[in-house]
């Protein structure tokens, strides 16, 4: 291996690592606030990437039908309650967000030639379709068992994951897709060729991390999510309901997932089930951070990305094995250094 | 005088064990009402049930309308706030962030006046202002209690419920806490106070209830109860003179 190849692999690793970092942050966030180990995180990556690919191909993505179906379920669950508590106005709001909004998206994509839109608009449309799925999935799958043990929430996560992968096969087919790059530019920095797409990925990830830090540090909603993570009972007494915190968290997780998918779609071929592996690598990074530390999780993600890049060069058949084996020394080290804490909920 | 809170025949059970049986209680607007009683009498259970933290049977009417099934978030939005016995602060967040979150429900309802409320809370607890950027988890016991009360005040409650505010605090801090309870009454906040420190509670309160094994055993004006021989024997004691010096009337 010469320096050039090492640089190239390093760049690959950091680019993928940036994506894993985003997913790791989302996993830590979801776990801290709701105690859910969010296995379907990766599915949002695939949904984001493949929805964008469908829009580019000028076809109506199936995810929008899922959005409508999930919305109908949410109205079925919440409609009566909203009517009883807040009258017709509240009910109309629930119906508006969960049924009218998806229908509007269907109409938009059916009657407006969105495939001729500029890329940024297509990305925005993709986000508009995929992100609301997050809070809807929380409402339908997790909220009814929100007080259950971590294990039960994990089992629900497995079920949601399997369902989402199955639906992805139905919506997008077994073919993989790749979308057009955000930028075809490439720069030469010393001996290294840097692709424009890599810069996009790293830049967007950094920007999103900064935005999240500002959200959690400066806004009252961000603080409310942190408060829920720190002390659920105390947060409830402030009027921060676990349901609100859960929906908001899942919206952020879906946003991070879908955006990662959109970013990675031009550099990797995404299949309906690719999300799981990508999500798992984010999970390895989150475990390095003990599912609690955001900065360590982000650094762990870069480590996972770089390790993956170099092992694909030296032993490409074993690259996944090598990456996932990383978790064993990490777990040994963590169990030796940290004291076991009984789950008190 | 209108009643801010009316509780009728409230029952709470933990499985088959009934922790609270047909409790009746009213809090008049602007009043301080105290509930005293021994450990395990159901005082905390009473507050939790009113707040909607625990499921209950019976009727709770707050600020003029009946709550069939009280729900915490809704009670907070209607102006009821509980300072729980365990304080439940956000330990890894700053004092100021804790206070801001106290106004979360108001902020959600579009009432974004928390900066002004925070100045009022700081005026009441200058100590909190000194420590505003410190993590809540690093505060002393008394400061934590001040923060818990201050955080609840950020919601501008109509009814403030305090669960054992003096528990585990040094005598001087207890006096400070009771001084503030008296101060809050002057500002028109109705208060439901659960206390083991019966002497101090009876001195600051207008009305009082004695809760024993899940039932209201006695009730009446606080001064009258303080002179009742049964209360003196069970809760005030004869040798408790040192407590007299700690208690303050709020005047």
Automatic annotation (TrEMBL), chain A:
It is found in: Cell membrane. The keyword Acyltransferase does not apply. GO terms for biological process: amino acid transport. The keyword 4Fe-4S does not apply. Pfam families: BPD_transp_2. The chain crosses the membrane at residues 17-37, 66-83, 95-113, 119-138, 150-174, 194-216, 248-271, 283-310, 317-336. It is a multi-pass membrane protein. GO terms for molecular function: transmembrane transporter activity. InterPro entries: ABC_transp_permease (IPR001851), BCAA_transport_permease (IPR052157). Keywords: Amino-acid transport, Cell membrane, Membrane, Transmembrane, Transmembrane helix, Transport. GO terms for cellular component: plasma membrane. Signal peptide: none annotated. Belongs to the binding-protein-dependent transport system permease family. LivHM subfamily. This is Branched-chain amino acid ABC transporter permease.
TrEMBL record, chain B:
SMART domains: AAA (SM00382). InterPro entries: AAA+_ATPase, ABC_transporter-like_ATP-bd, ABC_transporter-like_CS, BCAA_Transport_ATP-bd_LivF, P-loop_NTPase. The keyword Cell membrane applies. GO terms for molecular function: ATP binding; ATP hydrolysis activity; branched-chain amino acid transmembrane transporter activity. One of its GO terms (biological process) is L-amino acid transport. Residues 5-238 form the ABC transporter domain. Keywords: Amino-acid transport, ATP-binding, Cell membrane, Membrane, Nucleotide-binding, Transport. Belongs to the ABC transporter superfamily. This is ABC transporter ATP-binding protein. It comes from Denitromonas halophila.
């Amino acid at each position: 291996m010469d320096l050039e190849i090492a640089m190239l692999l390093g760049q690959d690793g950091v680019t993928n690592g940036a994506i894993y970092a985003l997913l790791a942050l989302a996993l830590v966030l979801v776990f801290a606030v709701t105690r859910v180990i969010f296995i379907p995180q990766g599915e949002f990556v695939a949904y984001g990437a493949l929805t964008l690919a469908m829009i580019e191909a000028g076809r109506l993505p199936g995810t929008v039908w899922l959005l409508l179906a999930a919305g109908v379920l949410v109205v079925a669950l919440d409609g009566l309650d909203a009517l009883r508590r807040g009258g017709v106005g509240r009910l109309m709001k629930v119906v508006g967000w969960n049924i009218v909004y998806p229908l509007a998206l269907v109409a938009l994509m059916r009657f407006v030639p969105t495939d001729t839109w500029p890329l940024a608009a297509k990305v925005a449309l993709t986000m508009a379709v995929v992100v609301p799925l997050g809070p809807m999935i929380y409402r339908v799958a997790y909220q009814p068992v929100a007080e259950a043990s971590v294990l039960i929430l994990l089992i629900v996560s497995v079920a949601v994951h399997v369902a989402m992968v199955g639906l992805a096969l139905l919506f997008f087919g077994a073919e993989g897709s790749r979308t057009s790059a955000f930028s075809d530019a490439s720069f030469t920095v010393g001996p290294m060729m840097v692709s424009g797409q890599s810069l996009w990925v790293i830049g967007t990830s950094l920007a999103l991390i900064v935005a999240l830090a500002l959200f959690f540090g400066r806004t009252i909603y961000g603080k409310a999510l942190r408060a829920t993570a720190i002390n659920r009972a105390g947060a409830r007494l402030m009027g921060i309901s676990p349901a609100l915190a859960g929906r908001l968290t899942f919206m952020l997780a879906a946003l991070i997932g879908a955006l990662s998918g959109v970013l990675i779609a031009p550099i990797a071929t995404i299949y309906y089930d690719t999300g799981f592996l990508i999500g798992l690598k984010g999970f390895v990074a989150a475990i390095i951070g003990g599912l609690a530390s955001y900065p360590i999780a982000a650094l762990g993600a870069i480590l996972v990305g770089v390790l993956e890049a170099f092992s694909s060069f030296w032993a490409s058949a074993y690259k996944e094995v090598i990456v996932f084996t990383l978790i064993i020394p990490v777990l040994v080290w963590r169990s030796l250094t940290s004291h076991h804490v009984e789950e008190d909920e | 005088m209108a009643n801010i809170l009316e509780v009728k025949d409230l029952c709470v059970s933990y499985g088959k064990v009934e922790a609270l049986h047909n409790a009746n209680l009213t809090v008049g607007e602007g009043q301080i009402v105290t509930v005293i009683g021994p450990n395990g009498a159901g005082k905390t259970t009473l507050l939790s049930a009113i707040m909607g933290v625990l499921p209950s049977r019976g009727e709770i009417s707050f600020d003029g309308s009946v709550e069939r099934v009280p729900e915490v978030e809704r009670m907070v939005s209607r102006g009821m706030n509980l300072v729980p016995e365990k304080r439940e602060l956000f330990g890894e967040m700053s004092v100021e962030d804790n206070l801001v979150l106290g106004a979360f429900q108001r902020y959600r309802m579009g009432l974004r006046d928390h900066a002004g409320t925070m100045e009022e809370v700081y005026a009441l607890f200058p100590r909190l202002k000194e420590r505003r950027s410190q993590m809540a988890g690093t505060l002393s016991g008394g400061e934590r209690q001040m923060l818990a009360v201050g955080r609840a005040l950020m919601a501008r409650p109509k009814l403030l419920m305090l669960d054992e505010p003096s528990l585990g605090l040094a005598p001087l801090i207890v006096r400070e806490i009771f001084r503030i309870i008296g101060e809050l009454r002057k500002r028109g906040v109705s208060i439901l106070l659960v206390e083991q420190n019966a002497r101090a509670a009876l001195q600051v309160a207008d009305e009082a209830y004695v809760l024993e094994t899940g039932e209201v055993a006695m009730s009446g004006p606080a001064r009258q109860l303080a002179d009742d021989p049964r209360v003196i024997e069970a809760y005030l004691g004869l040798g408790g003179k040192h407590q007299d010096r700690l208690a303050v009337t709020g005047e």
